[in-house]
Amino acid sequence: MKKLVFISLLAAVTLTACGNDSKQNDKAIKKAIEDYNNAHPLCMAVIPAVESGVTNVLGSDMVRFVKVDGNGKRVNSQAVKQMSVLTKAGIYKKRKDEKSPENGKKAWVASYELTEKGRQFTRGEMGSRQLCVGNLSVQNIQWFSDPTADNGLTVSRVSYQGKYRLHKWAEKTLAAGSSSVYQNLSQPSVSQAVVVKTNKGWIDLREVKNN
Q: What residues form DSSP beta bridges with 111?
């Protein structure tokens, strides 16, 4: 009877230790993935909500679109709202509205210039410029595999629930534009990653490949 009690206590201690190891690994793996995601933000082509006329994508050096058409009607109000958010955040600087001929009449064109602060949130060259709107954060680790050897590395495959943590100005800008894009980014999603065990702890495999 005493032997049975001892075995039961030993099993309980073993399970507790495994549970603590699992929590520590969860924390370390979450940090490894988030460190990579923070260094590699979500950057995407964001087209202003222009209904009439054309414009450059957000992140371009200049964004211009018709604000008042040749008939004196205000247009592209959502795009104006988006740019108002970006100017208040210091991403763009409002320039003086310009007159432009439209079907023989004069239309007013709104013009915005990218600031130095704004350049910190852009990627790519002109013609393919992207706006960096936030990072994918790890909400919780769903599971991770036992560490195994793979091409000389000790790796673990991870499944986690993530959600995009958007900059406040980016969230407001996207919300005023394409509702489907904003809704998709607002919803939690399941993602996978591979982490590598090093002498400094876990790191994302993509970090190894980039080096």
A: 64, 95
* C-alpha span between 70 and 138 (Å, rounded): 50
Contact between 196 and 208 under an 8 Å Cβ cutoff? The reply is yes
Condensed to tens digits (0 to 9), the pLDDT of residues 57-79 reads 999 999 999 999 988 999 999 99
Spell out the residues 6+ positions from residue 144 whose beta carbon is closer than 8 angstroms to its own: 25, 26, 29, 156, 157, 158, 159, 195
Cross-strand partners of 63: 112
CA geometry: angle 73, 76, 79, nearest 5 deg = 150
Distances (CA, A) of 139 to 95, 133, 167: 41, 18, 17
Q: Are 137 and 165 in contact (CB under 8 A)?
A: yes
Judged by phi (left if over 0) then psi (alpha if -120 to 50, else beta), residue 204 lies in: beta
This model's pTM is above 0.85: no
